[in-house]
Write a structure and sequence with these properties.
2 copies of one chain form a homodimer. Chain A has 208 residues and is mainly alpha-helical. Chain A has 2 domains: 1-48, Homeodomain-like (Arc Repressor Mutant, subunit A), CATH 1.10.10; 55-204, Orthogonal Bundle (Tetracycline Repressor, domain 2). Chain A has 9 helices and no strands. The first copy, chain A, is elongated. The first copy, chain A, binds a DNA duplex (30 and 30 nucleotides) through helix 3.
Chain lengths: 208, 208
DNA sequence: TTTTTATCGACAGACAGTCGGTCTATATTG
DNA sequence: CAATATAGACCGACTGTCTGTCGATAAAAA
């Protein structure tokens, strides 16, 4: 019945995560959440100051999970630069730890605000991580660009919108057709020979 | 008192436009709208089936205005390719006709859903228009890329997020510093010599 | 014992959308 | 031409839902 604040907080967050994923933020009422957790109205508002506060806390969690894993991989200099880039990008998709795919939850309709906030986390958090790897690559003579950060920003911004189900109206086939073009463009941006980044296409095995 | 359906509809849309711009979509109640228009609740719902329906109609309007102007300019083959690109991009910002800057309204906080819907219109509508111009440029030997469409898509996706006030947390100075890097990257994407697109920097006189 | 922390649930206020009905201009008919 | 029917625009009270508040209460800590 009575629990530590942090435990309750996480219980609420877990339920909110599930419900927002199913019905979206607007489609989920605070009642839905507190009933499923099994607490009273006042208790919910004892732990969170508003419904949006719940979402922000949830995003904070995602943030830590998603970017934390990415950072870890990026810092592991024992992995070759090429391979590390791939692993960082792929780590964005499947994390969560419990099998649930975070990104799947986000790309639901009716979650505009959440979607926007996550996008913001990614567009601000991911380029710095990737840029570090690219810098190493430049030192090793693998890449060649005077603006590694802006390159990464462009690439992240692009994948985040075009490979986002509810942003661009294209079929899966059309989206698949975008990939070689994307790789080609990335090659130009990073100043490498055409075709030399083809191996990166395996990143697109799943979603993003 | 009694008016043609289309007239009323536009009256409501005008007020909604103003109010959404001031207080955001969520911050504006249907009461706010109908009071300012001077009609009863039922009347509002006689013309629109829901609050979101009002927003969709508003976006439809923007869509027509924004992309319509862009299309017009893009089709005017008497303007040289280089100049035409600049004009198309600049037309996105100031249109509206009555001095109000559409884009300013959109980049308000609390408008996540609207923001997303407009982004969608742009990311789907603008690249085809620009691609046509780029194709001309390729024929004229100005540009060189096998993937003009995807190039434009990338550029539009990038400018739409990075030069969007509430998406990337940077100061105006930092944002200004992004511009030369952006131009450099565009030059690479379009396969032109470094420095040859510098003249395009004048596009960034105002906002986007 | 006193204070702090977690919990409860009734309540207020706001808001989106509904519905039955009204009013008026225009068309139809006797 | 006058009586009447029709349809389109409009009204406003009402419903149900939802978020956030508050004072009371119980349990644990100090």
């Amino acid at each position: 019945m009575r629990k530590e604040a942090m435990e309750r907080r996480n219980e609420i967050l877990d339920v909110a995560d599930e419900l927002f994923g199913q019905k979206g933020f607007d489609g989920t009422s605070t009642n839905d959440i507190l009933e499923k957790v099994g607490i009273a109205r006042g208790t919910l508002y004892y732990h969170f100051k508003s419904k949006e506060d719940i979402m922000d806390a949830l995003i904070e969690r995602y943030n830590a999970q998603i970017l934390g894993t990415a950072k870890e991989i990026a810092a592991n200099k024992s992995i070759p630069v090429n391979e590390r880039i791939i692993r960082v990008v792929m780590s964005l998709n499947i994390s969560d730890g419990n099998g649930k795919e975070i990104m799947d939850h986000i790309h639901k309709p009716q979650n505009a605000l959440m979607h926007q906030k996550i996008q913001k986390v990614i567009i601000n958090g991911l380029p710095p991580i990737l840029t570090e790897i690219i810098r190493e690559g430049i030192e090793q003579g693998l890449f060649n660009t005077p603006y590694p950060y802006e390159c990464m920003e462009m690439i992240v911004a692009y994948t985040n919108t075009v490979f986002d189900d509810d942003m661009v109206d294209i079929t899966d086939e059309e989206r698949a057709a975008r990939i070689p073009a994307f790789v080609f463009n990335v090659e130009r941006l990073l100043g490498v020979e055409s075709g030399s980044l083809m191996y990166m296409m395996k990143m697109f095995g799943n979603g993003d």
